[in-house]
Amino acid sequence: MRTAPLVAVVLAAAGCAGASSHVRADASRYPVSMSGSVRDGSGRVVASSRLERVGGYAEAYTAWAMIWTIVPLANRTHDVSEALNAQVQAARGEAVVNFTAVARPCASNIFTIVGVLPGCTDVELSGDIVRVRPEAGAAPSASAAPSGGGPALASLPSEER
C-alpha cells in the first residue's frame, strides 16, 4: 500500500521524459507548405488542379534532451533544407505541400527516471513533392527545367518559402 504513491510519482515523472525539436527550412530552394496549396510567383494561390504530385518527401530523426527537456542533447533545432532540396530536385519538383511533422516518444523513455536520464522523441517528416502544370491555353515556358523553385514559383520571396 505504501508503494502505490511512489509508483504514481515515478510514472508521472516519466511522463515528462522526451525532447522538443524545432523544424526549420531556412536554406530551402523550394517553397514548403503545410497546406495542400502553394503560391505562384505573383503571390496568388495555384489551383489544386494545376498541381501534379511527382514524389514524396520523407525524413526521420531523433531529438534528445534531459532534465525534463531543459538540457538539449541533439537535434533541438533541425534544418530540413539539405534533405528537402535533394529530394525535390531528384523528383524534378517545384514545391512541397502537405508538409507534416509527427513526434512520438521513444520507447527508451520508460527508463528515464525523474527526468535525469536522457529522453528522446522520434520525429517523422513527410510531404508531397509537386510540380505546377501550365495553365490551360498557356504555352510552355522556355525555362521549363526546374531550378530552385521552378519557373512558376521562382520569384517567391525567401521568407515565404
List descriptors.
161 residues; alpha+beta; 4-stranded antiparallel sheet; 16% helix; elongated
Structure description:
The chain has helices spanning 3-14, 81-90, 150-153; strands spanning 22-24, 51-66, 71-74, 77-79, 95-105, 119-132. The protein is α+β, with helices and mostly antiparallel strands. The strands form 2 sheets. A 4-stranded antiparallel beta sheet has the order 3-2-6-5. Strands 1-4 form a two-stranded parallel sheet. A hairpin with a 4-residue loop joins strand 2 and strand 3. The protein is elongated and about 75 Å long. It starts with a helix and ends in an 8-residue tail after the last helix.
Number of strands: 6
Strand content: 25-35%
Whole-number mean pLDDT? 74
Taking pLDDT < 50 over at least 5 consecutive residues as the criterion, the unreliable ranges are 4-14, 142-147, 154-161
Helix amount: 10-25%
Largest sheet, spatial ordering of strands: 3-2-6-5
User: What's the oligomerization state?
Assistant: single chain
| Number of helical segments with 4 or more residues | 3
Distance between the termini: 58 Å
User: How would you describe the shape?
Assistant: elongated
The string of secondary-structure elements, in order, is: HEEEEHEEH
Biggest sheet character:
4 strands, antiparallel
Radius of gyration: 21 Å
Class inferred from helices and paired strands: alpha+beta
